[in-house]
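In response to a reviewer's request, we include the raw inputs and outputs for one of the modeled complexes. The three entities were modeled together in a single run.
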Amino acid sequence: MKTLIRVGIVGYGAYVPMYRLKAAEVNRMWSTSGEPVEEKAVVALDEDTITISVECARQAVRRSGVDPANIGAVYVGTESKPYAVKPSGTIVAEVIGATPSVSTADYEFACKAGTEAMQTCIGLVGSGMQKYAMGIGADTAQGKPGDALEYTAACGGAAYLFGPAEESVAELEASYSYVTDTPDFWRRSKEMYPRHGNRFTGDPAYFKHITGAGKALLAETGYKPTDFKWAIFHQPNAKFPINVAKMLGFGMDQINPGLVSPVVGNTYAGSSPLGLAATLDVAESGDRILMVSYGSGAGSDAFVWKVRPPIKHRRSGPKVKNYIERKRYVDYATYLRHRGQIIV
Amino acid sequence: MRKVAIAGIGFTKVGEPWERNIKDLFAEAALAAMKDAAHTEVDQLYVANMMGAHLQGQLGMGAIMAEAIGKPGISAARIEAGQASGGVAFNEGVKAVASGLNDWVLVGGVEKMSDLLPEAVTTALVGTEEQEYTSYTGVTKTGLSAILHRLYSREYGATPEEIGWFAVRSHDNAVGVAHAQYSFKLSIERVMTSPMEADPIRMMECAAVADGAAAVLLGPAEKIATGIEVAASTVATDYTSLASRRHPLTLEAVKKAANGAYEAAKVKPKDVDVLEVTDDTTIDGVLSLEDLGFVEKGKGAKFVAQGHTARTGEIPTNNFGGLKARGNPVGATGLYQIVETVIQLRGKAGANQITGAEVGMAQSMASVGSTCSIAILRRV
Amino acid sequence: MSVPRYWREEKPRYRLIGEECAKCGAKHYPRTPVCSCGSTEFKPYKLAETGKVESWTVIRNAPLGYERFTPYVVALIELDDGVRVMSQVVDVEPEAVKSGMKVEYTFRKVTEDGQAGLIQYGFKFRPIVD
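The model returned the following structure tokens for the whole complex.
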């Protein structure tokens, strides 16, 4: 997919809360021995998807230098909306000063809700409807106690302010969305925790859709893996992104800066957006980046970004690395308290 | 303006009288005051109460209490100024008599805090703070005092222990006091090992939840043979948020009200024989002592620790236990202070008597100094 | 909690916007109808978002609605523009708070009206992340 007007990322922001739960602590609790990630990020008692989205949005606005009154859309993609009915976006838009001349809505597509929001913003800017539009992927994903996903369901996010390519730090060259009805993981409306198909979430789900979108976009653009400096894939754990990278012909060097899941966990709708932010934090002008998200249900959004000269001056303030390094470990009971899983 | 005197006083024991409601408590104090004055005619009633709306859901206490004391029909109103309600209601009563508009004014305060759970009381107590930006932070009244406590220690080098002595001194004076909530001695060790309430203030530095009522009957001095004269009655306010005060360690409302009172009564701090100050926390008491002019700013904690406010000291303070030990049924407290000052000036304080007490001062204060009332009473 | 009361304070809380008196220049946060100089004319004033901790307390017995956050720190903060505010300080252990500690604005949940009621957000401050 290409846009009529050239679009790029004019500002980006990311956030990871400071508390951490180690896989070892989960194992201590349940007498298990898994380690799909080393540790995962946990929200503070007073954080939620909206506060995380605000952190990311504020950083993106600040770095972009754009007057927030000119932001015409704020879309938040998440599967942990604080309100089932009331968009997180209205609060984010109000905080950053984008109201009232703004469109907002919340997106849901499991872990690719954030990139769905980004696709829509690209469409708005690319069609000329809006000059600036912000897409956010953020989550405070809930892990069912004792379930395999408890090791990885984590909290964090990233925000992307889209605008004219000539003002951007990274231009969108092309994107592609690949979706089928594949019920690998879902959550019914009144349920607290999702259900998943265990090994079914691998080949027929994650791998099929990421390689499907990735290959289609590479074919459309004519690029090969060696044309890319960096690559980011959805990161539900430490292993999957490494394996899918290999499947598509990408190496560890390319995915390393964006591979945060081992120490952050799976931030769900924030996952590949956070990986992209970590990559932009170290990228140089001219670098080409492939990003492919994955959302259960299922689908993938693939993007090709080309980094531009302004990147050098538009990433001040804490980087993803700084948020990752800012940490305090919690024990399992404190983790439950922070996640609101101690019912009183 | 004619001179005003206190014709009679009445009060209940401070505690947790579960079976008695606010009307019972108020009436007990009011009837006792009228009996003490040997005078039952009242043409104006002021009811001092801070949290009755929260605690009992009761508004319109003027009419409620007028009826409760058997006088439906008289002019009556509740006066609310947070923890200073008692002192401010007293001030309204004095003005009513001094102006000549009323002859016999009954001022009574009542509070029944034990009706609600502690968290609800904590919430009600922070009600005097600005709600949208101060209370919204989740701070408590003790927390605000604690913020000053920490600033005070840092600025003046006073140790938390020195500040903690205020509670010890108050308790010393409550021993043997029949109407006190807590009439036991409190050691400094017990104070300093009690759990933190709002760091760095500890639980034993803070007044507890209490129920009580106290009342005075005011009238024209020329008509009261054995009256205690009201030499001065003043009220002042300050910026309500610590963030808005240029020098938060100076309680401007206390200074202003005190200076106005000293001038009206034509006395200086050294002329005051007995003093009642607001020690709902130790630091509130320390700062009050300083801003009332009894000790230089920054030296108040040591002053108290060294015994200068004890019965034998330079300025006997909180002579029946103060807010900490006699107790603090908030809306009524200001009236307890007046009542106790009268007892001293009448020479009726028994073992607690400060010999030759002629001039007494009572300081009733809300919310770390957002409102302060001062009364100076004189034996004539 | 009243919806209109919450909504009315959204912009001042979310964006740290107070007022400056047009006559004497005094800065007010929150806004006030009349300045102590008597003026009723004001201009919006955006507060600095960084500052330092002047003093603080640790709340262990909270008012209703705040119980599940204890223990939490409430501080008197001097912002870099000289304006002072009261605010919680988060993302730091209460014992680690120090006088003069540099802090910055963060947007957080303050309380909520139970599981089904409105979530109330507002500003807090945290040690500067860099």
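As requested, we also summarize the result in words. Chain C has two domains: 1-46, 48-130. The first strand of chain C starts at residue 17 and ends at 21.
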